Amino acid sequence: MHREREAAHIRETCVELLGEHLGAQLAALARPGFELRPADESHPAAGRSRAGGPALLEPGTPWPHDADDVPLLLFAVLDTAELAPWLQDELPVRPGLLNFFGLECSHRCEVVPADPERAVEVEPPGVSFASVPLHAAPGLALPDVWWGASLEDLIEGFGLDPGPDLTSICDPEEQVIDLFTEEHLGDRYPGGGLDQAFGWPIAVQPGDPLPDRRGEYAHLLRLSSNIGGWEFPEGGSLHFLIPRQALREGDFSEVLVAFDDG
């Protein structure tokens, strides 16, 4: 997949549906990401990326625990060296391996980077899940394309300028899902499956701890209740997000999680 061609396709689609003024602004929000799926013979693993299994930590790194001293679960490891060529400046700092820890029904989480040259496998001290190598299929994602929100909500949520003549192009109260049909972007949208790295989060419930200004946050990982042996609330998914400034600085201590309801 060629990133520049995909960006041009998204821009053409947005301008066709929303006009040059607003369409170009929305297209500029497209972020690179990956649809994650279990690797197989036809879809090789993205380096050492996987769901479950042992963590990949530098020697001496402690296993994260919650306030009650319960060990967090190792949900996934992303090998960013394999993802970086597609992400380009979306990943300004090269953290090597990212270990994603959390709990199935809690907002407690931790993302621990590790140097791939020094990382060793560390078995979980508590509950563990079978290791599933992950294939990463690249794409470009727009925010909330399939979310049941109106175009007006999308404009307000991301600080876009609708321009003076939007109503002559389309109804601002129309739901985004009715504008961007699967025919337009469906086969190009990372996260069309259940699991996703980077891009934009899909269908995350608003409210605490999800920030109101989603544009200020980067999406790191979406995991469904199906890829591993875990079960998130209402059979939904868990999203790891990070302030964009923290990502630029390589500071993963500010990561937060949000759930959707499947």
Notable traits:
21% helix; 12 strands; alpha+beta; 262 residues; two-stranded antiparallel ribbon; ten-stranded antiparallel β-sheet
3D architecture notes:
It is a single chain. The chain is of the alpha+beta class and 262 residues long. It is built from 6 helices and 12 strands. The strands form 2 sheets. A 10-stranded antiparallel β-sheet has the order 6-5-4-2-8-1-9-10-11-12.
Oligomer: single chain
Termini gap: 29 Å
Shape: elongated
List how many beta strands DSSP finds. Answer: 12
The number of distinct structural domains comes to: 1
- In N-to-C order, the SSE pattern is HEEEEHEEEEHHHEEEHE
Structural class: alpha+beta
Low-confidence segments, given as residue ranges, are 187-191
- Please give the radius of gyration in angstroms: 19 Å
Helix content: 10-25%
Largest sheet: 10 strands, antiparallel
Strand content: 25-35%
Quick structural summary:
Helices cover 21% and strands 26% of the residues. The chain is of the alpha+beta class and 262 residues long.
